[in-house]
């Protein structure tokens, strides 16, 4: 099928893009595979089929693909309507437009009516760097967590994204997926599986447990490895499902570690750190919690790599933040 003049499915332009961002290929490819297998999947996007890799789905299933143009709110409302017919709509746009711009439609048309719409917010956090504040999504976890009945998932890498998409097909109710720009380093092997609402434990730590989500899982694992090499006992929880939170895993870590540190590419208010703080305070667990992320400010504008370094959200920064916490906890 011809996709667009000068940008065919096998053109070097598109292949180069997908090679640089394999997560994009996982998004379009996995959804196309699900459609091949007979699942009632339909897919839509708001004029971003190249940015999110859904051109791969369009190429294989043009009859199940919808292009909404720059009309995100309309896309979400239409997805709610499609879901009432027995279809499983997966609709995608930049996370800032999905969670912020279309918040009312998510709440009223999708979540309130309990429709099984899958909302994909890609290029979340500060991954859009130079695009600036209008395109940064550092509030979306707080927004989506507060919407009743909405499941919130932030996969760590390409394999986890594919696994989460598969796990969501028969999941009841609506789901918000928070993903980056498809360039996250590999954490899991291809073909991995995950259970929605069940954290993945990477070791336990008597000194510190890092609770990370999405793009921050790999830096947290790198930081934990460096700290472990220096004699600290450090565990990591991949909290891919931010809502519902795996309460058992969090409480186990809180009771078994001297310190907890959440790590998220998000404002420290209302996201993963807020969810963990609410839980441990309600259960009265006496453990110190440090929330690491963007500290209640509009993120700066610049290359994503520079922004991660500035906010201590790369591996070196997470390690440094954790060392500061460990030193403070020892005093």
TrEMBL record:
Keyword Lyase: no
Keywords for this protein: Thiamine pyrophosphate
Family as reported in the entry's similarity comment: Belongs to the transketolase family.
Protein name in UniProt: Transketolase
Cofactors, names only: thiamine diphosphate
Residues annotated as domain Transketolase-like pyrimidine-binding: 21-186
GO molecular-function terms, A-Z: magnesium ion binding
SUPFAM superfamilies noted in UniProt: Thiamin diphosphate-binding fold (THDP-binding), TK C-terminal domain-like
Transmembrane regions: none
Domain of life the protein comes from: Bacteria
UniProt organism field: Streptomyces antimycoticus
């Amino acid at each position: 099928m011809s996709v667009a003049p000068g940008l065919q499915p096998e053109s070097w332009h598109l292949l180069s893009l997908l090679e640089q961002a394999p997560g994009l290929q996982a998004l379009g490819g996995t959804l196309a595979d699900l459609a091949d297998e007979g699942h009632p999947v339909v897919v839509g996007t708001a004029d971003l089929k190249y940015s999110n890799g859904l051109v791969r789905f369009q190429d294989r299933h043009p009859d199940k693909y919808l292009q909404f143009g720059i009309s995100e709110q309309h896309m979400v409302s239409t997805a709610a309507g499609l879901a009432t017919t027995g279809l499983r709509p997966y609709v995608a746009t930049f996370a800032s437009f999905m969670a912020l711009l279309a918040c009312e439609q998510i709440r009223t048309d999708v979540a309130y009516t309990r429709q099984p719409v899958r909302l994909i917010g890609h290029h979340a956090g500060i991954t859009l760097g130079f695009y600036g504040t209008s395109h940064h999504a550092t509030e979306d976890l707080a927004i989506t967590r507060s919407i009743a009945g909405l499941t919130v998932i932030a996969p760590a890498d390409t394999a986890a994204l594919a696994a989460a998409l598969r796990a969501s097909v028969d999941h009841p109710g609506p789901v918000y997926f928070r993903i980056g720009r498809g360039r996250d380093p590999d954490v899991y092997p291809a073909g991995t599986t995950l259970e929605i609402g069940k954290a993945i434990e990477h070791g336990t730590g008597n000194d510190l447990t890092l609770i990370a989500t999405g793009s921050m899982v790999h830096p947290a694992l790198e930081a934990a490895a460096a700290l472990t090499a220096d004699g600290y006992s450090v565990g990591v929880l991949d909290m891919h499902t931010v809502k519902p939170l795996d309460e058992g895993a969090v409480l186990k870590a809180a009771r078994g570690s001297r310190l907890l540190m959440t790590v998220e590419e998000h404002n420290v208010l209302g996201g993963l750190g807020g969810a963990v703080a609410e839980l441990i305070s309600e259960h009265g667990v006496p453990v110190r919690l440090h929330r690491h992320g963007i500290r209640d400010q509009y993120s700066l504008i610049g290359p994503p790599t520079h922004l991660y370094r500035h906010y201590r959200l790369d591996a070196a920064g997470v390690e440094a933040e954790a060392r500061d916490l460990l030193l403070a906890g020892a005093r």
